[in-house]
Amino acid sequence: MPEERYARLKEYLSAENPVLLDVIDKYKALDKVAHKIGLLESDETYTSTISWWPMISVLGTFSAGKSTFVNDYLGAEIQDTGNQAVDDKFTVVCYGKNEDHATLPGLALDADPRFPFYNISEEVNKVDPGEGNRVNLYLQLKTLNSEKLRGKILIDSPGFDADAQRDGILRITNHIVEMSDLVLIFFDARHPEPGAMRDTLEHLVSTTIAHKDANKVLYILNQIDTTAKEDNLEDVMGSWQRALAQEGLISGNFYGIYNESASSPMQNEELLKRLKGKKDADIARIIERMDKVGIERAYRIIKSLEDYAREIKNEKLPKLQEELHSWGRRVLWSDLAVFGSILALVLILHVTLNLFGFLLATPEGTMVGTLLLIGAVFAAHIKLSNFLAHHQAKKLLSTDENMAKALLHNARWWKSMFGFNKHSWKEGSKSKLNHIMTQARESIQKLNDQFVSPAGKKEKQE
Ligand SMILES: Nc1nc2c(ncn2[C@@H]2O[C@H](COP(=O)(O)OP(=O)(O)OP(=O)(O)O)[C@@H](O)[C@H]2O)c(=O)[nH]1
Ligand SMILES: [Mg+2]
């Protein structure tokens, strides 16, 4: 039920993202309008169509050092690392109040309003029937009491190998890339040649650059400490960037880093200084993006509220009005046809067989006859208007399920086409939507105020 969901979202947000608390009430107001119009069923809510927590996902080739990076960022050994393929699941790491960190099965993700995974099993089932019911094989949840994770979700993933990957994993990867606010794609400098990364590149890069929000993807060449042996950092970085460019990537989001504690010791001081300088600068840029992700998500959530309200007012309502009007017109014509036919039938029967003479003989009889006639027309009207509404809704179902629902919700037998033709139709809902849009803009203003940096510069807004 939405009430329960609002309450749980509020509970989590008050602990992790209080800025967004009052936005829930605005979503609630939006849901109420949508329930009234019939675009949402009473147990549905727009709050479950977006991710409330910013997501950072770490993807890449196996043994590239993804888990080592995650541990280092969090300052906790939460993930296992090693030279063989270690991870076989996606691990969603999020904030937890308890001191000990806990590992929960993937199914826990379905129940938690923070996670945009509520339909992941269905998604997987679509490409790999039956597989979705086993999401525990693909996903697990870990909680950690770390300030770094407050109001954020971090996802570590299994090493990517398109050949060996089942469709289920590919589908989850796409879903994660789609939902993430920031995607870190790891390669490692031990295998910088295109051959070793081709599969990964082809799949990951092509899905990510196809994404309209390409700036959210960072390409990271890890383990650049291994270039010390031959002192060929520039060559290795160069060939890796060329491989990316061949896939059509010309973005500036390339980084070269390594993990100090995992790196092999370097003798040459000069070289160490150079590599460390590069790494420190690039890690700082990456961390800056990771830290800012919450702000971008907050803007996105409010923006969606405004977009939903505008879409309902400017597109959904006019479309619904048009649909209802055309339904009303069909009902009217059918009514006329039915009424005409019944009347004609009665007349013919009366004239030819004098079937109703006995009724017309007395005033009471005439009255009963008229009532029967009206009753028949009335019953036909109810049946017909229902039938026509369902027929029309069925046609809408494949393109716009919500519209089909809204049509059935509004197309009731006691309504006529004349009601849907008015300017004032759904005036109350329209003014509520206007109000929500104004409020959304005010919230954005509030966020701006909150995130204005000391230098007076505003943070990036979408
Ligand atoms: N030399 C060096 N080794 C590293 C670096 N980062 C990680 N490693 C080592 O590389 C191995 C793999 O690291 P992981 O963090 O497990 O890699 P992963 O990408 O999570 O691997 P999978 O989960 O199996 O795909 C481990 O033995 C790490 O110690 C680095 O910057 N330099
Ligand atoms: Mg790993």
Protein architecture, described:
The chain is an alpha/beta fold and 462 residues long. The protein has two domains: 216 residues, Rossmann fold (3-Layer(aba) Sandwich), CATH 3.40.50.300; 123 residues, no CATH class. 56% of the residues lie in helices and 9% in strands. It is built from 14 helices and eight strands. An eight-stranded mixed sheet has the order 3-4-2-5-1-6-7-8, with helices on both faces. Helix 2 runs parallel beside helix 9, helix 5 crosses helix 6 and helix 11 runs antiparallel to helix 12. The radius of gyration is 31 Å and the shape is elongated. 33% of the residues are buried. The site of guanosine-5'-triphosphate (GTP) has 24 residues, from helix 3. The site of magnesium ion has 6 residues, from helix 3.
